[in-house]
Amino acid sequence: MNAKILIVDDDPDIVMMLEDRLQASGYETVVATEGQQALDQIVHESPHLILLDLTLPKVSGLDVLKRLSQMKPSDNLPVIVMTAHASIEAAVEAMKEGAYDFLTKPLDRDHLLIVIRKALERDALRRQVAYLRSEVDGRYASIVGNSPSVRSVVEAAQRAAKSDASVLLLGESGTGKELFARSIHQWSHRCAMPLIVINCVALTETLLENELFGHERGAFTGADRQQKGKLEMADGGTVFLDEIGDMSLPLQAKLLRVLQDREFHRVGGSKTVSVNIRIIAATNKDLRQAVRAGQFREDLYFRLNVVTLTLPPLRERSRDIPALAQFFLDRHTRDAKRPGMTLSPAALDALTRYPWPGNIRELDNVIARAVVLSPKDTIEPEMLALLADDPILHRRDDAPLPYLNLPYHESMEQHSRYIIARAMERAEGNQTKAAESLKLQRTYLARLLKQQKE
């Protein structure tokens, strides 16, 4: 679609010249010869850009700009003002009122087209950023559930959001700790500033240090320029440190200084960098036990543990499962362009009875898979591929193993399934941690899991 440009000028020669040039360049044009007419055209024609002469009869160009700033959704419409050399001061005033740029008459054709193109590109980028931000906010803004355990955590999070106190989010993997971190940021006075998410377990110690603090030029081989770290990029906003229980002790010491003094040095640098940030941290580990074991600094633990929120596992909030399932179903049917899909009563009952070792993340994945693979618009239990009937998920540790009376090879196969399932449950679905506990290569464990599903 060609961009539509509103030309606002009371000089018919200039209007004709602009129409000819813009239409020859592929733009659609609309004309207004005075201020009030321009305001009416903005409402009815919805132009993408305005070329506005400041000297207009009745309602001046400056007054049009001032009124435009109060009109929704036209308050962000790019405006290029046109003025004579003698009224540069008025053009500067127009820039203060929100004009994108100003052009002096007589207009240079090439310069005019360049300014218009840049203004339209900037506006397109602004709209794209606004769209992506709304998508992110929409994906993370909803904390679904009305069970008492969830509502109490939400209320505590909302109270914590009003302060700058550090928040420590505890809970099993997949319980929604990042969602709560994003919500706390959105509820806080820092919501207009960035939220930077850092996964402390995804990178090696050296890479994580560089990610957090940045580096100076020449700090290491290949560092040919200065690079800001995530902490510096979050200045004025919030830093979410996910899986902080896996951070190395040397990095914990450096993070402690940031929490105490709100300052640090870039890697390879001596200049002190000061930041104004709020820290939210999350882990699925028992940090008190980690402190006793010497794996986590006690002073850092107390710095982080100002406000602690413990998120309940999904098995303890089963009354929220229908609402959560519908939330994920709506999202994934929209993404897959399969509107109208529903969960059968039997499928909903199966979801409610399932113990959910992977918590909300597992529920999300189950619904996503069912939406893609279900041949019908009504999702039945078999399309959920749940393991709710697997005795491994329900037996007590002291209960007799049900397969001991089977023939040798069948019994060994069942026992292999049992120990792998237990390892995965204890690792909360994390294959890397499960492989470590079993003393296996992660790729070999992944192959065993794949074979068991076949």
Radius of gyration over C-alpha positions, nearest whole angstrom:
30 Å
Major β-sheet strand ordering? 2-1-3-4-5
Any idea of the CATH topology of the largest domain?
Rossmann fold
Tell me the helix content.
40-55%
Output the CATH class name of the largest domain: Alpha Beta
The main sheet comes to:
5 strands, parallel
**Percent strand:** 5-15%
**Regions with little confidence, pLDDT below 50 for 5+ residues:** 388-400
The CATH homologous superfamily of the largest domain is named P-loop containing nucleotide triphosphate hydrolases
Query: Which structural class do you get from the secondary structure elements?
Result: alpha/beta
**Number of self-contained structural domains:** 4
Number of strands: 16
Distance between the ends:
50 Å
Q: Tally the helices.
A: 18
Q: What's the CATH architecture of the largest domain?
A: 3-Layer(aba) Sandwich
Shape: globular
Overall pLDDT metric:
86
SSE arrangement:
Layout: E1 4-8, H1 12-24, E2 28-32, H2 35-45, E3 49-53, H3 61-68, E4 79-83, H4 88-96, E5 101-104, H5 109-140, H6 148-161, E6 167-170, H7 177-187, E7 195-199, H8 205-213, E8 214-215, E9 227-228, H9 230-233, E10 238-242, H10 249-261, E11 263-265, E12 272-274, E13 278-283, H11 287-292, H12 298-304, E14 307-310, H13 321-335, E15 342-343, H14 345-353, H15 359-373, E16 378-379, H16 408-426, H17 431-438, H18 442-453
Parallel strand pairs: 1-2, 1-3, 3-4, 4-5, 6-13, 6-14, 7-10, 10-13, 15-16
Antiparallel strand pairs: 8-9, 11-12
